[in-house]
Amino acid sequence: MNELLELEFKGRRTEYAANPLQYPFQRGDLAIVTTDRGQDLGKVSYVGIRTGDNPGEKIGLMVLRKAKNVDVEKLNVNRDREAEAKRLARDEIIRHGLDMKLVDVELQWDGRKMTFYFTAEGRVDFRDLVRELATKFRTRIDLRQIGARDETKKISGYGVCGRPLCCATFLTEFKPITTQMPRDQFLPLNPSKLSGVCGRLKCCLRYELDIYRDFQRECPKIGHPIKDDDKGMGEVDKLDVVREQIQVRYGNGATDRYTKEQFVEMTTWRPQMPKNECICTCGKKAPSAESQLPMKAAEPMQQSGDDISRGNRITLRGEGGFRVDFEDDADESVDISTDVSVSIDPTSKRKKRRKKKRSGDNSTQVASGEAPQAMTPQQVRSTPQQQPKPQQPRPQQQAQSPQRQQPQQTEETNGDSPQQPRKKRRRGGRRKHGGGSEGSGQGSSPSSDDGGED
User: Which range marks the domain in which residue 317 is found?
Assistant: First the structure.
């Protein structure tokens, strides 16, 4: 129900407090809460958690009970003591010669702690001041340095708009304000007009920032060049966020205003278009490629299967596109051009490509060093139909292989001089001359013996 309450203390200081006993509180009620050092009295500013706030897992305050009339009277007495403490603290600051400005004094409801808020340009050594204040007020003294915005929030005042300051009325936290925010809202960079009472950039510069940025994201940037056939060159002069219009100014001084939808429809502008690329106002955008196709070209695609089988002929072109010839003499042929080119090779080229591929396979066998061998009928019978691929022989085996293959080669030469085997080459290495010479010298003697026996 009312598990969490937002309480407001002096100087618009707000904190969340837990309500474990589920007391029925309303906005404006006074409540007594426990703190890390005693008890304090605050006013309920909101029941529950505000949208976007994150109180965290650890909440330091806890509601004890509702405040009574006696508690309110004690609070008024504390306000009188705070005014007296503020006057005495200023005198001590002047006596110690400290470069600091005292802003406000807050006394806890039970009187156990007194907090002094001050502003300073740099770091201040106030240890002697704390001792003097502790001996006078006989309580715990806490000095806190705050910024210019927190000072204005505690003092309050009126802005240039004539209303009370936002930080002193409804703002619960200060969000960062940068100089890019007034640029995005097309405001002049005048410090006197952009600064608030605190001397910093106004907090209201963030209120309408998202609306301006969303509109600029969907529109061209100011200064983007535009070319019109009738009015000449121009540029985007102004973006009216309130009316949601785009103003264009041409070189002859003429100005035109368009809505966001009209500008997108009448020009070639697109989101994320580079600024150096010129926008063309051609009345309307150029029609798409599908709309430029003739109507007769689309008819064959929509016909049924019976109509297609009449004999209409479609011819593809290598440079891109195709031609449609209708069977009926009344219908003229249609030429359709596309950006996609089709590579069509004649039959002769395909045959040549196959021959090159076959010759390449034969050349790889010769390059591997395996000479064609003629096998005897007995060897053909003994060899199996499918054999696993032989492993690459070692250098010693390569030198001995011609001796075993040479007798078969000499039988076909009919006693002529034996054929010299090719020298093998190792991959990635040099040729081996020793293996070939040894094989050729030893292969002549077995050939003559075999020839004599036959």
Answer: 296-336
